[in-house]
């Protein structure tokens, strides 16, 4: 009897793994598109919350971004 249960559990795991593999195979493009859009949203929020600047270094005679 215990051998039957082990075999049943093993085949159930195998079927679940095959189902997940099939799901990723069908939806890989949508997962990639969703990941790209999520990454762009994070970059947008980072850019929106950072202090704007022109990317040039601060001249030596000027104090940039510091409060005295």
Tell me what you see in this structure.
The protein has 68 residues and is mainly alpha-helical. The chain has one domain. The chain is built from one helix and no strands. It has one helix at 2-49. The radius of gyration is 27 Å and the shape is rod-shaped. The mean pLDDT is 78.
Largest sheet composition: none
Total helices: the number is 1
According to DSSP, the number of beta strands is: 0
Could you name the ranges where pLDDT drops below 50 across 5 or more consecutive residues? none
CA distance, first residue to last residue: 80 Å
Give helix % range.
over 70%
- The oligomerization state is single chain
Tally of discrete structural domains: 1
Structural class: mainly alpha
Beta strand %: under 5%
Q: Name the helix and strand elements from N-terminus to C-terminus, one letter apiece.
A: H
Radius of gyration from the alpha-carbon trace, in angstroms: 27 Å
